[in-house]
Amino acid sequence: MLNLQHFATFLIVAQRSSFTRAAAELGHSQSSVTTQIQALERELGAPLFQRTKFSKSIALTEEGRRALIYADKLLALAEETKAAVRG
Length: 87
Fold this sequence. Notes:
Elements: H1 4-16, H2 19-26, H3 30-44, E1 49-51, E2 58-60, H4 62-86
Antiparallel strand pairs: 1-2
Helix pairs in contact: 1-2, 1-3, 1-4, 2-3
């Protein structure tokens, strides 16, 4: 089952273009962020980021760009749901 926390982490990594900066912002270890992204990639069945072996730079894959649109929608819908329930 898809995990909203993984989508939230994915969104921050994509916005920051860095696992390290995302981890710092989220208050997580870099390995935790990496684990969440890998779990999301397994669940979706596609790599979301292009990683280079000799550089720390990352870029969204085509699948990652598509997933980013839905991550935004899913997280917005989750917030809307919370607001509706709280009244």
